[in-house]
Amino acid sequence: MPESKSPLKVGFIGLSSRGWASDVLAPALTQPSLRDKYDLVAVSTTSEASAQASAQKYSQVVGHPVKAYHGSSSSIASDPEIDVIGVSVRVTHHKEVVLPVIEAKKDFWLEWPAGRNTLETKAIAQAARKNGVRSIIGFQSRYSAALQKVKELLASGVIGTVRSSHVVAHIGKELGIWPPVLREASEYGMLPLEKKNGKSPFTPILRALFKLPPRSTHADPQFDFIRIDPSSFGTFVDADGKPTGKTLEVNIPDHFAITGFLKSGALVNLFWRDGYSSGPETGRRQFVWEIDGEDGTIRMEGNGLYGAFPGSQEPDLFLNGKKVEFQAGNPFLSVTAAWQEFAKGKTGDYPTIDDAVKHHELLDAIELSAKEGRRIIL
């Protein structure tokens, strides 16, 4: 469909008083620069009270009444006024919430990983194709200002043919989102630590690599996915850093290395680790991504606490060792860019549910490679 000349009517599921949707997704959607493209007309939460509170809040933001729905997603999905529905709920509920939206033939926004596993994501994709609806998946890191600048540099040919690339990334224990210490306030953020919930620690980097699908992947058995921390539990602490007595079992790795090839034949290597101290006194690098071409090198480096998440904290950018200046972005601007692209219709550059399926298949291949110690060709 071409870019809409009138605002698309939007409903939002999971838009409560706090969380990612309230802090970033909805504010980006309702800012003045997008008012000619989108109009928030309805919200839906789990309870009537929270739905009414959210509707009242956003009625003031957009300057007109916003309808309140609660309970099953089929209620808001059946609203004939709505064109697009945003879904930002726990990963464990992605499929059950978004399928009624799709069956009502509504276009949708769904946060990654768009289902707990490949089977769920494929079911969502199949339903979307069957009902002829458009989708956009929340891979906001691809709209990072630094990554956009890198794409520009690569397109210019300034470093020549790309031959290899490597990423080194780390999540520091100070963030409290990885063992051995977990902030109780981030308990939902701990869901990735339980494999059944569908996420893994390396999906942020795969988001950044979204436009560069590998031809094959290989995880050397010597660098298998392993737990360096001998404990299989993380300990929750309160806002003051005091243990609450609650623990969470962790069953996915805290260290891994991945090697693969892009379609161009360029070699890609990724090393990820979690849970060490991140203070400046350690000298530990949080994020380094180098892209080596025949005629030069592009390097991104971020040493802040959120350095491993380019879409959340912009890295410094260097071309052949010299710093490149650019207008730094943030998660809010990245989401705004995503909404802008979706509004363009078929000409927009945005990830779809079919792209999410490809990413799940990539993650499955990486896991199988590590388990069986062999190269997997995709």
Overview of this protein structure:
α1 (20-29) crosses α8 (331-343) and α5 (118-131) runs antiparallel to α9. The chain has nine helices and 19 strands. It folds into two domains: 8-133, Rossmann fold (3-Layer(aba) Sandwich); 141-329 and 353-377, Dihydrodipicolinate Reductase, domain 2, CATH 3.30.360.10. 28% of the residues lie in helices and 26% in strands. Strands 18-17-16-15-7-14-13-10-19 form a nine-stranded mixed beta sheet. A six-stranded parallel beta sheet has the order 3-2-1-4-5-6, sandwiched between helices. It has a four-stranded mixed beta sheet with strand order 8-9-11-12, with no helix packed on it. It is α/β, with parallel strands linked by helices and 378 residues long.
List keywords for this structure.
378 residues, Rossmann fold, 2 domains, nine-stranded mixed sheet, six-stranded parallel sheet
Instruction: Give the overall pLDDT as a whole number.
Output: 83
Strand content: 25-35%
Total tally of structural domains: 2
The rounded Rg comes to 21 Å
> Which structural class should the secondary elements be placed in?
alpha/beta
- List segments where confidence is low: pLDDT < 50 over at least 5 consecutive residues: 187-192, 207-230
Do you know the CATH topology of the largest domain?
A: Dihydrodipicolinate Reductase, domain 2
Major sheet: size, sense and barrel closure? 9 strands, mixed
